[in-house]
Task: inverse folding
């Protein structure tokens, strides 16, 4: 918004109210349109953004900040107005983007603006050597402070994330202690079933089994939420993964709440394929998708049947595909563009909104894509596409 509205405003200030040696309405309007595009197109506000939108976002900032401000600085002979503006730009640029991108963008933007000014710039008064040296000192100080603040902000965010994850670890440990006690109680109940009558023994055995299943499910949810919370700290190591083995293991290890729930899940391997990634992380991806699909089936009005949740493995057009297809309640079309955003959940009662964002981050880290196709009351189809391992 500041870019879209600021450039017309400053054109009026520096071009009419307090005229400067050089102003350009055309350039101001171009910068304004670029800033407006960040507000108009929804892909720029998606979280996390796609690689294409992130690259475009970075490019627009580079054009509207270091390149444009450096051009105006040279065209105005480095006067006090544009000396201050360029110095402020460095501070703003480092706050808006990662310090490494800002460093590369600052250097390349100033260099390209200088080359463009020499080749195509308007006539401008030469700067005395004293002014050149003075401006270099001021701009170097502004750039250095921007760099320091950018690195400090990055370190602060990292410390906050580490603190949050550490707190979650402590909470998980405190939760596991009573869960372990509950599990022991369940085992004791099932051990004592032989002392009563047959009917009483069966009831106690069922209660013990349900208690153990509950403990297993709660431990599973703890592990899942901790893994999902590591959204910004995914490991970079890669290994060769068999898609069929990955899916079969994830489906087998999932803590189903009942036999009926287990029976509704089927795996169909049309053609196995190999890809590179983290096996543990991709197992978590399949686990998240299974959890969401089973929750959707449980919310449906009809009882689930075998095949209501189908996980397919195959290839298409030189890409590997893992498809999770359920016949549950589906996803509202209005919500589908946002389901991969962190902290956005279609299940406001129990969902924390990190599962699908985690899935997208893991899949994109393996140079793959994940998308959804769904209609209300007709289920959902999540498709993961991955590059085949040569």
Result:
């Amino acid at each position: 918004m500041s870019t879209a509205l600021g450039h017309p405003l400053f054109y009026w200030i520096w071009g009419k109210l307090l005229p400067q040696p050089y102003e350009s309405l055309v350039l101001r309007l171009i910068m304004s349109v670029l800033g407006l595009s960040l507000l108009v197109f929804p892909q720029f506000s998606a979280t996390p953004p796609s690689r294409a939108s992130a690259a475009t976002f970075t490019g627009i900032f580079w054009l509207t900040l270091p390149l444009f401000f450096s051009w105006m600085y040279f065209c105005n002979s480095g006067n006090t107005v544009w000396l201050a503006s360029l110095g402020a730009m460095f501070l703003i640029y480092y706050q808006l983007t990662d310090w490494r991108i800002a460093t590369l963008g600052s250097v390349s933007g100033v260099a390209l603006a200088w080359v463009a000014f020499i080749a195509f710039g308007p006539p401008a008064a030469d700067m005395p050597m004293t002014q050149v040296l003075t401006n270099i000192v001021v701009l170097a100080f502004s750039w250095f402070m921007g760099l320091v603040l950018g690195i400090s902000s990055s370190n602060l965010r990292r410390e906050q994330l580490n603190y949050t994850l550490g707190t979650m670890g402590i909470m998980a440990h405190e939760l596991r202690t009573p869960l372990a006690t509950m599990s022991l109680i369940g085992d004791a109940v099932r051990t004592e079933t032989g002392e009563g009558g047959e009917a009483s023994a069966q009831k106690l055995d069922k209660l013990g089994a349900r208690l153990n299943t509950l403990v297993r499910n709660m431990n599973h949810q703890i592990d899942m939420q901790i893994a999902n919370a590591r959204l910004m700290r995914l490991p970079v190591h890669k290994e060769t993964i068999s898609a069929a083995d990955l899916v079969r293991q994830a489906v087998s290890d999932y803590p189903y709440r009942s036999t009926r729930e287990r029976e509704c899940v089927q795996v169909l391997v049309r053609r196995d394929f190999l890809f590179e990634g983290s096996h543990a992380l991709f197992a978590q991806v399949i686990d998240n998708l299974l959890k969401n699909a089973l929750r959707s089936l449980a919310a449906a009005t009809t009882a689930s049947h075998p095949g209501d949740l189908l996980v397919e493995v195959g290839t298409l057009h030189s890409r590997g595909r893992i498809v999770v297809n359920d016949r549950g309640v589906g996803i509202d079309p209005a919500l589908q563009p946002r389901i991969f955003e962190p902290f956005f959940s279609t299940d406001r009662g129990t969902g924390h909104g990190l599962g699908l964002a985690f899935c997208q981050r893991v899949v994109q880290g393996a140079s793959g894509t994940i998308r959804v196709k769904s209609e209300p009351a007709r289920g959902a189809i999540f498709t993961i596409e991955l590059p085949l391992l040569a």
User: Anything to note?
Assistant: The longest strand covers residues 309-316. Residues 239-387 form a domain with the Heat Shock Protein 90 fold (CATH 3.30.565.10). The beta strands are 239-242, 265-269, 274-277, 309-316, 319-326, 369-374, 380-387. DSSP finds eleven helices and seven strands in the chain.
